[in-house]
Amino acid sequence: HPHCLSHSGGTGALAQWVLVELQGEVEPRQSGDLAGNLLGDLHYTCEGIPVLIVGHHILYGKVVQLEKPFAVLVKQRAAPQPSPTGPHGHYTVTALIKTKLLFKTRPKPIITHVPKKV
Amino acid sequence: AAMRSRAEVDATLQTAKLNPAELLPAVQCLTFGPQAGGGECCLLQLEPGLCAELEAGRSLVVRGEKDEHAVLCSKDKTYDMKIADTSNMLLFVPGCKTPEELNADPASCNIIHSQIAGFSKNYWELRRCRPKLKKLRKLLMEDPYEGPDGRKDQTSTFSKYTTEDLLSLIQASEEEILHQLQVIDACKIEGYWRILHFDYEMKLLNHVTQLIDSESWPLSKVPLCACLEELGSLEPREMIEHILLSYGRKYVDAGEIFFEMCEDKICRAIAQMLLQNAVKFNLSEFEEVWQQSVPEGITTRLDQLQGLALVDKSSRPETIFLLKVEDLPEDNQERFNSLFRIREKWTEVDITPYIQDLCAEKQTVGALLTKYARSSMLNGVKVYNSRRPIS
């Protein structure tokens, strides 16, 4: 059966999200899954360069306008039967992504002995 | 856990030895949302035009049975879907602001909490492909229409397909499907798309050509009304009109509808009728019978039979046999394999009609031959054969 990808919003424009691209893996500091955990603080320099502080690392990146935008597909919960991973499922288009923050430079470690108390 | 405060952000900046004066005032604290790790979201990379279609509110459809590779269809195009792995982590963040957006809103607060909706290491990549339309003909050939008197027609609608049925079964866009239905001269009978049984089609064509002959109408000006009047007692009016539409070009002159008959198509149909009854024919005998079988005023030419029949110039006497391109496999490699099984070496002129339909957008026959065949010289002529042994 064909599966329709139409946008879930109904009326109004599709949401625009942003992609953040990081090298390597992101792991939670404590065991358990990532949900609820802070990834980090995202700043921009006055020149518009994104700076991401993740744990003890500083990542410098750049803002990239995507030549080929992405659609974000969300799987519908009411999937009738389990099927092998693949596009054979019910999806809706939730958002479009036209911009990404690409962090490719090696992270600079933040060297500190004692975290500063607030 | 309490949300991060501006004071904590500032402390981190200090530890990191970053100068706040060199940064925009607003920080975005990114946290993983509750669904983030669930794998509910995935990314689809959009080819040009698809983004605009989605923004215009149009849908994209994924089509394919479990045994088929899935394709994505817009209103008029078809794309293969493939997973592309990156070695990077792709996080999707709703509401994440770019520097421009932050600058445009100077009154905004200096701390924004944004949730990461999901992440992935891969995404779906699209590549425009030929619509997979061979199945369309196959489905309609399950129950070809034999006319109102055809025995089979009283039976169930099991092998009959509506437009919606076809849309759900064929891996192609709606426009590509509708266009192909026109190309194969399908017609809608009682809401179902049907292909005519070849014998019935020839019967209808014969009625029309005999009438044209007896009325001495020019082939370029066959009146619809008169045809319906004269033949309406023999066959359904819709079928008479259908055969005229299939074999002619409709136009209006002084308020009346006429058809300019397509001589080449008539010749092809009659050739098929003659050739389908034997494995092969003596070429010169065939050419004679063929010319005698077509309506008065039409001249037969072998080049009318491209993609329908093949001449064997190596046999003595020369022979001709039926070989329809639509009976050959749809997949490129399989098509070439079957062609090389039929004949070991092909000239470009002979093979072109049998591979033309494989050309992707902007691809040439030459490019296909370079990819799937190997060339050599035979008696001063360039020929193509298989790259590897064919079983």
TrEMBL record, chain A:
<dbReference type="GO" id="GO:0007064">
    <property type="term" value="P:mitotic sister chromatid cohesion"/>
</dbReference>
<keyword id="KW-0235">DNA replication</keyword>
<keyword id="KW-0539">Nucleus</keyword>
<protein>
    <submittedName>
        <fullName>CTF8 protein</fullName>
    </submittedName>
</protein>
<dbReference type="GO" id="GO:0031390">
    <property type="term" value="C:Ctf18 RFC-like complex"/>
</dbReference>
<dbReference type="GO" id="GO:0003677">
    <property type="term" value="F:DNA binding"/>
</dbReference>
<dbReference type="GO" id="GO:0006260">
    <property type="term" value="P:DNA replication"/>
</dbReference>
<dbReference type="InterPro" id="IPR018607">
    <property type="entry name" value="Ctf8"/>
</dbReference>
<comment type="similarity">
    <text>Belongs to the CTF8 family.</text>
</comment>
<keyword id="KW-0238">DNA-binding</keyword>
<dbReference type="Pfam" id="PF09696">
    <property type="entry name" value="Ctf8"/>
</dbReference>
<keyword id="KW-0131">Cell cycle</keyword>
UniProtKB/TrEMBL annotation, chain B:
<dbReference type="GO" id="GO:0000785">
    <property type="term" value="C:chromatin"/>
</dbReference>
<dbReference type="GO" id="GO:0006260">
    <property type="term" value="P:DNA replication"/>
</dbReference>
<dbReference type="GO" id="GO:0000775">
    <property type="term" value="C:chromosome, centromeric region"/>
</dbReference>
<dbReference type="InterPro" id="IPR019128">
    <property type="entry name" value="Dcc1"/>
</dbReference>
<protein>
    <recommendedName>
        <fullName>Sister chromatid cohesion protein DCC1</fullName>
    </recommendedName>
</protein>
<dbReference type="Pfam" id="PF09724">
    <property type="entry name" value="Dcc1"/>
</dbReference>
<dbReference type="GO" id="GO:0034088">
    <property type="term" value="P:maintenance of mitotic sister chromatid cohesion"/>
</dbReference>
<keyword id="KW-0235">DNA replication</keyword>
<comment type="similarity">
    <text>Belongs to the DCC1 family.</text>
</comment>
<dbReference type="GO" id="GO:0031390">
    <property type="term" value="C:Ctf18 RFC-like complex"/>
</dbReference>
